[in-house]
Predict the structure.
Amino acid sequence: MSSANPSAETASSPVALPVGRNRLVQWLLQPEMFTFGLILLVCVVVGGINPDFFQIGTLFDVLRSATVMGLFALGVLVVLASGGMDVSFTAIAAFTMYSLVKLVLALWPEAPVAVILLMGAVSGTLLGALNGVIVHRLSAPSLIVTIGTQYLYRGILLTFVGTLFFMEIPVSMDDFGRSALLTLPAANDALAVLPTFVLALPLAAALTWVLLNRTLMGRAVFAMGGSAPIAERLGYNGLRVQMFVFGYAGFLAGIAGIVHVSSNRLANPFDLVGSELDVIAAVVLGGARITGGSGTVVGALLGVVLVTLINNVLILAGVPSTWQKLIIGVFILLAGGLSLLRRKR
């Protein structure tokens, strides 16, 4: 005859949720849903304070501002999924965009924008792949290596390439930056213009999703992020994966640099400095773990939208710009708490 206390046994055993409710809770705890909820919260708060927020022009402005950051974020996502860290992507973008503008103006001013984008992609890929080779050969933390190459690329740019602004850029890049994908009437008889270059982001997102979810290299990336020693014992080539992830981040950074110059119609070698943390914050808010092995394209894009809203739209609600970093920091801490809760469940 058992002497166990039934009430004590009941109190110590977990309470089972109905299957449907449990699935709903799991779905709500997904990082993408959390980030989407924060986006809605920001929109409701800003729109409630300033109804002018709910205009098509605001949406177009957010998409325009999110394009370059989104391209960076997709590259960082791939690197983080592999268990690495890259902070050199802005230096790669700056080196690529400024060097190519100077080269094209000197040798081929009428070069088509497609050729310039291709040159930017190739240049960025080579610089990024160099990061991967160094990380693998030195067996050094990728954060340390990319801090070093960030200073290296910027140093070469400012010392040997140039520091003067180019107020005039190649005609094809200027036309690319000015071309409109969609033009709609806005408030006060103005026009809301959605530039053509925003197409670079959905195209890059689709490519990244396919690479991560439908290719053997995508499996290798997540395997390396889960456990590099185990992945290599299973036959994955560490050097090849490192060159791919950092090369892909450089590929997107090179394209982002060309898009940045085209949209601003100005080549400034000092541009993009200091935006690395915003990009990494966006990817982390989207659910990617710094330790690797996780992350989704949708989550990264939602994180980019959230950070872009905070950096560009909160001013409409009268929130001082000095609060932007504070709010992003709070959101990251909340996302970390949610991740811990999800792992416990």
In short: The two ends are 35 Å apart (CA to CA). DSSP finds 15 helices and two strands in the chain. Residues 52 and 316 are 8 Å apart (CA to CA). The chain has a mean pLDDT of 88.
